[in-house]
Amino acid sequence: MDLKIENMTCGGCAKSVTKAIQSVDSAAKIETNPAARAVKVETTATPSAILQVLEEAGYPATSN
């Protein structure tokens, strides 16, 4: 799952995004790239669950 998160601009943001995703799926594999505002996620959680938890954390995402 490839995501675009416009307001993920630094390492701190990336940690918050990672933590939010892991709250839904602790085994998720997550690659963050704050410079590109991109996140790659390998998860068993549904895309809607991931998008919802990111929205709640203050990092609304769009799926690429």
UniProtKB/TrEMBL annotation:
<feature type="domain" description="HMA">
    <location>
        <begin position="1"/>
        <end position="62"/>
    </location>
</feature>
<dbReference type="InterPro" id="IPR006121">
    <property type="entry name" value="HMA_dom"/>
</dbReference>
<protein>
    <submittedName>
        <fullName>Heavy-metal-associated domain-containing protein</fullName>
    </submittedName>
</protein>
<dbReference type="Pfam" id="PF00403">
    <property type="entry name" value="HMA"/>
</dbReference>
<dbReference type="InterPro" id="IPR036163">
    <property type="entry name" value="HMA_dom_sf"/>
</dbReference>
